[in-house]
Design goal:
453 residues; mainly alpha; 21 helices; 81% helix
Length: 453
């Protein structure tokens, strides 16, 4: 009887090790989701407390994303110098400081400062967590395990929604407790990271071959350790450091452009307008003051369930097909929501239904698959720096969407805003259909040969 690679891992007991360490690394996504979504419930309170108009509200909500952009910029350097695991531990500390500091703020400038600090952690974790998982997971499990990261993000978002709901009745200072509550999962994340190893590819990059071999013995799918080490060493063929200019040279430019475009499209199709401003949108169509928070929790639950679907399908269906289907379903949902606002038709929870369909479509496609794709398409030699650039582009796109959403809805109306996002979904479909290459079931070194000729 010939055993499959998955059966070998299962029988050796190593699969449980791989899942465990991937789960711990993925918790960076939980902090990411919690830190970014907690603002949704705090918006009504901080608007009143800090006397914000639509412009300053957009800045207060989106300021974290400037921190994310800087976090993405420095994460590659930190991840290469200190290691993937230590960088994630630094992120955990930044998450805790941000939540407590924002909750104690009495001036807008200090509130925004702590949001920026949280953004540094979010931006770095968004790059390093998927990279850690991609570098430690075997090819046949990599898609599912990196999708754990998106699962952690949506669980963090859902946890933030529940936190908002629990603290919403504490009066004018409810928002302080909402932000401070993120310190608890931050501490848990930090402690769990103490128990996981560094990735074998980082260890080989640093010349620590013996340590890398011990880890590879636990995660390899039947391939000899010597052969795998040789392939990884070969991928680090250049002893010269790669500069940003070289990153966009003829060799790497095609894969860089694809990575940046996929990252940007994940954000400019509008998802975080829904995540951050969901209670505001629901309040616009509901006379029940408590209803917006409950409906927002429904979005969080659907997001989690959709990500389970992504984990089940990403290594079976493939990355490209899921991205294309997601663009179509998101476009249809956004058009439907836009029409509801255009004609003021809010009966029978119709807006909620189509918003849930939109979130579900995003969660099981672009939400999870983009992180998988970004974590695996860049060559070993440039992965840290390339991921930094792609993730930086993602956060800048997120910042643009989050900053402009309250302005667009105020000046153009919610209907037109939704139609704009729907058009962007169409553009994303066309680009991905033409440019995205399938990477399913390929090793990182095999994927490298797809893009680097």
């Amino acid at each position: 009887m010939v055993l499959t690679n998955e059966q070998r891992l299962t029988e050796s007991g190593n699969l449980s090790f791989i899942i465990l360490v991937s789960f711990v690394a993925a918790l960076g996504g939980l902090l990411f989701g919690f830190d970014t979504a907690i603002i949704s419930g705090a918006i009504p309170y901080i608007t009143t407390y800090f006397k914000l108009d639509e412009y300053m509200l957009g800045w207060s909500v989106s300021s974290i994303l400037i921190g994310c952009a800087f976090g993405a910029m420095i994460a590659g350097v930190l991840a290469d110098k200190l290691g993937r695991r230590v960088t994630l531990m630094i992120c955990a500390v930044l998450f805790a400081v941000s939540g407590i500091g924002a909750g104690l703020s009495t001036e807008l400038y200090s509130f925004i400062l702590y949001r920026l600090i949280g953004g540094l952690g979010v931006g770095a974790a968004a790059m390093v967590s998927p990279m850690y998982i991609a570098e430690i997971a075997p090819p046949t499990w990599r898609g599912r395990l990196v999708a754990f990261y998106q699962m952690a993000i949506v669980l963090g978002i859902l946890l933030a929604y529940f936190s908002n709901y629990m603290f919403s009745d504490l009066g004018a200072n409810s928002w302080r407790w909402m932000f401070a509550s993120q310190a608890a999962p931050s501490i848990v994340f930090f402690l769990l990271l103490l128990a996981v190893p560094e990735t074998p590819r980082w260890l080989i990059m640093k010349g620590r071959k013996k340590e890398a071999e011990k880890i590879l013995e636990k995660i390899s799918e039947g391939i000899s350790i010597e052969q795998e080490v040789a392939e990884i060493e070969q991928s680090f063929y250049s002893e010269n450091k790669i500069s940003i200019k070289q990153l966009f040279s003829k060799t790497y430019r095609p894969v860089m452009i694809i990575g940046i475009m996929v990252a940007v499209f994940q954000q400019i199709t509008g998802i975080n307008s829904i995540i951050y401003y969901a209670p505001v949108i629901f309040k616009e169509i509901s006379a029940n003051g408590s209803s917006p928070f409950l409906q927002t929790i429904a979005i969080g639950v659907v997001n989690v369930l959709a990500t389970f679907v992504a984990i089940l399908l990403v290594d079976k269906v493939g990355r490209k097909k899921m991205l294309l289907v997601g663009c179509i379903m998101m476009c249809v949902s956004l058009v439907a929501v836009g029409l509801c606002f255009q004609f003021k038709y809010f009966d029978h929870y119709i807006v909620l239904v189509f918003m849930l369909l939109y979130v579900a479509s995003f969660g099981c496609t672009l939400g999870a698959v983009v992180w998988v794709y970004l974590s695996e398409i860049f060559p070993n030699l440039v992965r840290s720096m390339a991921l930094s650039v792609a993730t930086l582009s993602l956060w800048l796109a997120d910042f643009a969407v989050t900053l402009t959403f309250p302005i667009m809805t105020k000046q153009l109306g919610t209907a037109i805003t939704m139609f704009v996002y729907a058009i962007i979904c169409v553009l994303a479909f066309v680009y991905m259909w033409m440019k995205v290459k399938e990477t399913k079931a390929k090793s990182l070194e095999e994927i490298e040969s797809l893009f680097i000729k």
